[in-house]
Amino acid sequence: xRNIFFILIGVFxxxxxxxxxxxxxxxxxxxxxxxxxxxxxxFNAFIENAPLAESKYLDQTLVVSGIISAVNSQDLTIxxxxxxxxxxxxxxxxxxxxxxxxxxxxxxxxxxxQIKLDQCSIHIN
Length: 125
Description:
elongated, alpha/beta, CATH 2.40.50.140
């Protein structure tokens, strides 16, 4: 009886440990939006106080609005300041179009001076 108890504890420990170490993949497209902000405002927040902006926006689901300044097959850039790795590019997107993008903030790139978003999709209200 005692051995069965230890075996069950071990099985449950392995199960919970595995789920803790390897959680399900986040679906940013399905998550609730934490912040809705325009590109200039979030960029200025990172320039003025990067540690504070990181503590607020890093790994959060955001909707960022602005003007498309670059488009290619895997990403687009908003206001030359926000780089968005987009899941599927809409071929109708044009330079200088207004857009709102939903994605996860992964940080500020000092070299390129851009905020990086991944798992992005076009946000429609």
